[in-house]
Amino acid sequence: MGPDTVLTVAEEAQLEKWIIEKALLGFPMHPDELKDSVQRVLKTINRPNPFVDDRPGRKWLKLFLNRHPKITQRSAEIISKARASVSEAGIRNWFQELNEYLQHENCAEILNDPSRIFNGDETGLQTCPKTGKLLGPKNYRNFYEIASGPEKECITVLCTFSAAGDSAPPMVVFPYKRIPRDIAVSFPDDWGIGRSDSGWMTSATFYEYIANIFLPWILKRHIKLPILLLLDGHKSHIGMDLYNLCTQKGIMLYCLLPNATHILQPCDVSVFKSIKVHWKEIVRQHKQKTTKSITKNTFIPLFKKAYEQGVQPSIIKHGFRKCGIFPFDADAVDYLDVFRKEEKNKKIILINKILLMLVNTRLR
């Protein structure tokens, strides 16, 4: 009944499949993300529609959900950081769910091949990091150090590593509409140059990285497809274009357990620590050689040195092994560290309850 839908039956079926599969992979979608995706599709195909600026509203969303009863809309439960603490049971369940998902997709053999298991994440590098304590007279209070660059400037870098110890070319993101020539010519030929208004990773820059940097690197090295790419759910920026690309090309995206990236993400556990240690050393050496500040124009050559020194196959492999990703083993995780954090959170909750009781008693 009624007029035809703006999107075809096939297009809506594709949206339904995207929403369901994205949720199963650990990336549930916000309604605004769906509306944004439809807007991009309509602007691309230039199809007439009744929407303002080609973007559907609440009525369209309600009717879309009515047409696709497999999808439901629920309010997210807001929980405190203490309640969101990670448990051993939660971590082991994540390992089991990933294994079951790969078996369902007939791809369980990926877990036995380190060259097909990847972890990607972004990190920020300060142009003026703290380089440690300084030496001087014992009773002299005014210890100053000339900043090597804008004190609060932070440049985003996206990196991807495999369990085999390989590192895909990174992408560095700058807050520009158009990358200045001086910065562009400073990049290694195979590195990615990203740009966004904020200088942070966005859906568009993440898509560019996968399509133009990561995927060509995979194909050039003749790595067997499909591959598994583990991502932090808070930073993955998975749009419909990226989902379709990865599905077609054999890149299986899967979300790491929320609030557990410090335990399960090799990038955080080992590699980024190594990069930042060497970055601080490069900055320290730079200060000794010149008084010139580290700027966006001079960042890449210096960071390249830190990246090459900090990213070693042994360090990458150690991260995957410590996280239990490869070899795939939930028992490899340091659960004592998890328990320590749980006990700390319990103590904080107990202390807060006692303080609240004392305050209420005084008020009475």
Descriptive key words:
Nucleotidyltransferase, domain 5, 364 residues, 6-stranded mixed sheet, alpha/beta, 3 domains
Q: Can you describe what's shown?
A:
About 30% of the residues are buried. The longest helix has 29 residues, at about 335-364. A six-stranded mixed sheet has the order 4-3-2-1-5-6, sandwiched between helices. It folds into three domains: about 10-65, no CATH class; about 90-130 and about 145-335, 2-Layer Sandwich (Nucleotidyltransferase, domain 5); about 335-364. Helix 6 (about 205-220) runs parallel beside helix 7 (about 240-250), helix 9 crosses helix 10 (about 295-310) and helix 9 (about 265-290) packs antiparallel against helix 11. Strand 2 and strand 3 (about 165-175) form a beta hairpin. About 45% of the residues lie in helices and about 10% in strands. By secondary structure, it is of the alpha/beta class. It has twelve helices and six strands. It has helices at about 10-25, 30-45, 60-65, 90-105, 180-185, 205-220, 240-250, 260-265, 265-290, 295-310, 315-320, 335-364; strands at about 115-125, 155-160, 165-175, 190-195, 225-230, 250-255. The chain starts with 8 loop residues before the first helix and ends with a helix. Mean pLDDT is about 85; it is low at about 80-85. This is HTH CENPB-type domain-containing protein. InterPro entries: CenT-Element_Derived (IPR050863), DDE_SF_endonuclease_dom (IPR004875), HTH_CenpB_DNA-bd_dom (IPR006600), RNaseH_sf (IPR036397). One of its GO terms (cellular component) is nucleus. One of its GO terms (molecular function) is DNA binding. Keywords: DNA-binding.
